[in-house]
Amino acid sequence: MSAHLRDDEIPRALSQGEGQFREFKSAWDRRSDPPRKLNWKSLRDKIADVVAAFANADGGLLFVGVEDDGTPSGHDYNDEAVKGLFAVPENRIQPEVRCRTGRAEVDGKEVLVFEVPQSAEAVMVIADGFPFRVGAQVQREPQELINQRKQALRVVGYEQRFRADATLDDLDLELAKRFLDRTPVGKRPVNEALEYYGLIDRHLGQWKITNAAVLLFARRPALKWHPRAGVRVFRVAGKERLHGRQRNVTQVGRADPPLAMAMEEARTLCGAQVRQSERLNGLYFEGVPEYPEFAWQEALVNAIAHRDYEVTSRETEVWFYEDRVEITNPGDLIAPVTLERLREGGPAHGTRNPMLVRVFADIGAMRDEGEGVARIFDEMADRRLPEPDIECEGGLFTIRLFGEDDRTE
């Protein structure tokens, strides 16, 4: 981020709950009645842990003086103690993390705000290892793994690069304004909202435009910026694709960039292909989609958000067969995410597109708790549908959702 979150924007950020980019810390020890002020050193250590975890992942916002449910509860520390808390990122973390810090009044309570940038290299809490942010949790990771991931993003970080041939006039600013209106900074002038997310940056009086900004908000026709940034949707008449005279494949639609439009268009295209059946519920029949709505929508949004946009030879693709739907996007998994970890159902986070993911999370288009795939598995299980299949081969990630009693061996 390149600008402070303003006081009047904090309630909206708190309403989004904790996740990959937000953490709430109470300043009270609620084991006693009435609650007592939390031990200063204990709070200091909690702050160090969260700040380092954010810095080692994608950056984020830490709000101190807020309960887990997002309710502001304030603190009872004097100015000197607060000054010491704000110094934690420099004094308790190596290399130091330079956060933006501030004091804000929310619902009559003072909240301490830490805006944490993504670090260039792994940072350590002194004498307490290398924390890493995964959804709403903090876990320890090896220093070498964190640095490998950061090096990979420096090499392949397509979304963060600036387009020398793009100007602000190439962006559909009305679209950007409508899209970002759902974020905490949505009431700002659109240039400021774009700058907050790092999508554009002012340099020597001129705006520099990132690939992420072009992917999200380029004026149509936008294919000149990336010929395969959209989503194609196919229907197969059968359980396998046939070719030649027996060809049974129909392209039912294509959602072209910018992504701010393509995401909803792809949802509409896919929604029209999800068949409905009727089931008796008490005295009435109700429509039941063949796949849980959350499952296929989460898989689709994940494919758009996490795909490798360095690949310009193919789109994200959705294939509807008679017995399953397959959603495929270009790009290998990013460490520490593995197929095994996804299949186990635990929280997992790793993305080559943190800027896109943050925007999508802040507008509510996707979960940022690192548990989206796990919930897909849960939703399918709740419907007593076969377990989804996921694979990553040949630079392509695919998730398959199967219909009732139709999974092929």
Plain-language structure description:
By secondary structure, this protein is α+β, with helices and mostly antiparallel strands. It is 31% helix and 24% strand. It contains 13 helices and 20 strands. A six-stranded mixed sheet has the order 14-13-17-18-20-19. α6 crosses α7 and α10 (293-306) packs antiparallel against α13 (372-382). The longest helix is centred in the first third of the chain and has 17 residues, at 40-56. The mean pLDDT is 91.
SSE blueprint:
Layout: H1 10-15, E1 22-25, E2 28-29, E3 36-37, H2 40-56, E4 60-64, H3 79-86, H4 88-91, E5 93-94, E6 100-106, E7 109-116, E8 124-125, E9 131-134, E10 137-140, H5 143-156, H6 173-180, H7 190-196, E11 200-203, E12 206-209, H8 211-217, E13 231-236, E14 249-255, H9 259-273, E15 276-281, E16 284-289, H10 293-306, E17 316-320, E18 324-330, H11 339-344, H12 354-362, H13 372-382, E19 389-393, E20 396-402
Parallel strand pairs: 1-4, 13-17
Antiparallel strand pairs: 2-3, 4-7, 5-8, 6-7, 9-10, 11-12, 13-14, 15-16, 17-18, 18-20, 19-20
Helix pairs in contact: 6-7, 9-10, 10-13
